[in-house]
Write a structure and sequence with these properties.
This protein is of the alpha/beta class. The chain has helices spanning 3-24, 61-73, 81-85, 126-136, 172-182, 201-218, 294-301; strands at 44-47, 49-51, 58-60, 76-78, 96-103, 112-115, 118-121, 145-148, 185-188, 226-228, 243-247, 254-258, 261-267, 283-287. Strand 4, helix 3 and strand 5 form a beta-alpha-beta unit. The longest helix is centred in the N-terminal third of the chain and has 22 residues, at 3-24. The structure holds zinc ion.
């Protein structure tokens, strides 16, 4: 066949394939029209450490940036846990919500640098990277949930203590307060990452109550609505994840807690709050770390069926059904 004729015959085929090829690579056009579906799934993505290299519970800084970029490019907008629980997701028509969660309160997520006597957010910590990204992508707001440990080892104590990673113990409360002031939400991840499955009811309640007390010391009166299960392990008495109490032996004060949202470690994209099967007390997440890939999940959510993504109709007062 004459080469020119072959091109003429093949060209339409190639042009038809082009959008499919693009989609296959996760490069869906930002202007693609998506049909509203407010019963669709919402990814609750979960990051741990943001460091030099990918690994277990770790992503590299470059990868973290690339994940933000991919979510933005594919039409996702970060929302608050409050708007999710209250069924008040208010994002533009055609966009999809994503809920960011950051677990374990390491300095890699939120690090201060001392510059001329001032404390500034390290631009290479996850918070610094995210805030920079939002500056250049103003359709995103600082939204997301920090599931924190006040007193775990190796600097996992409200983002660093004892000089670990250059972080001073006295900066801890200031960091928690600043996250709240920036627009992020504070979430309980127990006192020191206890494996709740192996402890008594009393210890489970102490872990939650003391986690809550520490957040309250940083932001008095803050309503903690979410909790993340350390290692994804449930206590024997699951009801204690939702509510419980503990008596402080020193002051004899009774500390009560309630958590509306309980985050698991994995399980895929979560249900819409409008889905009749939605259960805030058992929310699956999409962990992002070495060996797991955001693109795979987002591609699955672009297909019709069980995992199809939530797409907004632009009006938080109406629920668009497919
Ligand atoms: Zn954890």
């Amino acid at each position: 066949m004459h080469p020119a004729l072959m091109v003429r015959l093949l060209l339409p085929t190639l042009l038809c394939l082009f959008p499919i090829l693009l989609r296959g690579q996760g490069r869906e056009s930002a202007t693609a029209v998506r049909t509203p579906n407010e019963l669709g799934r919402i990814p609750i993505v979960e990051w741990h450490q943001v460091v030099d290299k990918d690994g277990t519970y770790k992503v590299s800084r470059e990868r973290f940036r690339a994940e933000l970029e991919e979510l933005h490019r594919r039409g996702y907008v970060p929302i608050s846990l409050a708007s999710y629980l209250d069924k008040q997701i208010d994002i533009p028509v055609g966009k999809s919500p994503v809920l960011f969660t950051f677990d374990d309160a390491s300095p890699s997520q939120f690090r201060y640098l001392e510059r001329n006597g001032q404390l500034v957010i390290d631009p290479t910590s996850a918070l610094g990277i995210l805030l920079d990204f939002i500056k250049t992508h103003p359709d995103w707001k600082p939204r997301g949930v920090f599931c924190m440990l006040p007193a775990a080892d190796a600097g996992h104590a409200f983002f660093g203590n004892k000089g670990i990673d250059g972080q001073k113990s006295e900066w801890r409360m200031k960091k928690v307060k600043q996250l709240h002031e920036l627009g992020f939400e504070l979430c309980n991840h127990t006192l020191w990452h206890a494996k709740l499955s192996k402890y008594s009811d009393a210890v489970v309640q102490e872990q939650f109550a003391r986690g809550l007390m520490a957040i309250d010391s940083a932001v008095p009166g803050y309503n903690v609505r979410g909790m993340a299960l350390p290692y994804g392990l449930w206590p024997k008495n699951r009801a204690l994840t939702k509510a419980g109490s503990w008596t402080d032996p020193k002051s004899k004060r009774v500390v009560r807690y309630t958590h509306e949202a309980v985050f698991e470690v994995a399980g895929g994209p979560a249900r819409s709050p409008h889905d009749p099967l939605f259960d805030a007390g058992k929310l699956p997440r999409v962990p992002l770390q070495g060996g797991t890939n955001l693109t795979t999940t987002l591609n699955e959510m672009d297909k019709a069926g069980k995992w199809a993504r939530y797409v907004s109709d632009g009006n938080p007062k109406t629920v668009a059904k497919p």
